[in-house]
Amino acid sequence: MGIVIKQSAKNIVITYFGFGIGAVNALFLYTNFLGKEHYGIVGFLLSGANILMPLMAFGVHNTMIRFFSRCKSEEEREQFMSFMLLMPILLIVPLGLVIYFFYDWIVAAIVLKNPSVGPFLWLIPVIGICMAYFEIFYAWVKVHMKSVFGNFISEVLVRIIIMLLLLAVHLHYISKSDFIYCLSGAYGLQFLAMNLYAIYVKAPKLIFKLPDNTKELMAYGLFIILSGSVATLLIDFDKVMIPAYKAITENAIYSVAIFIATVIAVPSRAMLQIIYPITAKLMSENKYEELNDLYQKSAITLQVIGGFIMLGIFLNIDQMYRIIPGNYASGTLVVFVIGLSKFCDVILGNNNAIILNTKYYKWVMCFGVLTIFLMFALLKLLLPLYGIDGAAFATLITVIVYNTVKLLFVVKKMDLYPFSLNTVKSLGIIATIFLGFYFWDFTFHPIINIILKSVLIGVLYVWANYKLKISVEINTLIDQIIIRLKGYITA
What we know:
The chain is mainly alpha-helical. Helices cover 82% and strands 0% of the residues. It is built from 19 helices and no strands. It has helices spanning 2-57, 60-67, 74-86, 89-101, 103-110, 123-142, 147-170, 176-201, 214-245, 248-262, 266-284, 288-314, 317-323, 332-346, 351-356, 361-414, 421-437, 446-467, 472-490. The protein is globular, with a radius of gyration of 22 Å. It starts with a helix and ends with a helix.
C-alpha cells in the first residue's frame, strides 16, 4: 500500500483542490451568474455526455488497464496502444451517423417539456467524444503509474476554464447561451492537455497491425461498455430524466444537491486511480492474499474518510444552503439520500476493479444492465409523484441492490472479504457523532457555524478512529504527522 498511500494522498489533495474550484462554480457562480434555467441545461447536457462516454470510448480506458500488463515486449505494447486508440472509432462513426440523420426526431422526443434545451442537444456527443478520448489517454498514463498530474488535468483544469467562462458571463463578455457552447470547448481543451501529457509520459508509436488477442480485447471492450454505461447511468440517468417530467429549473436544484453529496466519493476516486492498475497486476500474477489485504485496507480506509466527509456535509447542510445564492434548499433531502448512495459505493473499496479483472465479469455486467431497467422503472414511478426527492430515492435503491450483488459475487466467487469488525466500529462512530451533533447549531454566521461545528466533529471523529485503530493506514499517517510536528517543535 506504500505507493497507493503516497499517490493517493497527492491525488486527494489535487482532487479536493479541484472540487474546491468546482464548489465555487457549482454553489456560487452557476447559481448567481447563470440562473436555474441555464444551469439546469448544463446539468442535462453533461449528464447526457457522461452517459454517451462509455459508448464513445468502447471501454478502452478499462481494457487498457487490464491487458497492458500482459504485454511482454515493447513492440507488443506499441501494437496494443495503437489498437486501443483506433478501437473507439468503430462505435463513434456509426453512432455519429445515427445522431446526424435522426437528430430532429431525437430533439422532438427529448425536449417536449423543455424546448429551451433543443438548440444545445448536439453538444452532447461532442462533449462525449472529448470525455472518451480524455479517459483513454488518462488510462495510458495510469498504466505507467503516473496518475498525479493526470489527476490535476482531470479535476482542476476544466473547472478553472469553466470558472473563467462564468466570470465572463458576469462581466457580459459572453451571453448565457454562449457559455453553454463554450463549455464543449473547455472539455476539448481538457482532452488536448491530457493527450499532450500522455505523449510526454510515453509517446505511442502507431502500428497498424492487429494484436494477437484482438477478439478478446473486443469482447472485453463490449462488456466494459455495459459496465461503464451501468455506472454512468446510475449517476446521471436521473438528471437526464428529470426534464421529461419536471421543469428544467428542477434540474438545477438537483445538480447542486448532487454536487454536494458527490464530495463524499472524492477520496475513493483519488485512491482508486492508482489502486485499479495495482489490482489488475496482482490478479494477473494470482497474488490473492495480497489482493485480499489490499481489498480490506482500501475498503476500511475509504469508509473512514468517506464517513468523515459525509458527517461534515450532513451535519452542516442547513447552514450550507443558507450561504448558497438563490432558493436551492428544497434539495436538502436529495443531499441525504444521494449522500448515502455515494457512501455505499465508497465502502466497497476496489470491488469494481476486482470484478472487471475476473473471468466472471460478464455475469455481473449483465446483471448491471438489469439494474438499469430497475432504475428506469423506479424513476418512472417515483419521479412524477415526488419530484427530485423521488429521483434520489430511485437512485439509492438501485445502488444498494447493485452493490449488494457485486459484493456477494466477489465473496462467493473470489473468496475475498472487504469487511471486518472495524467496519462495524466505524459505522458505530459515524452514527454516534451524527446523533450527537445533528439537532443543534451555533447561533453565529453560517460560515462560522460550519467552521466551528466541523472542527468539533473532526477532532472527535479522528480521535475515536485513532484510539480504536479502525484503519492501520490512517493511524500510520497520523503517527507520521505527529512525529514531524514534534520534530518541528523541538528543532
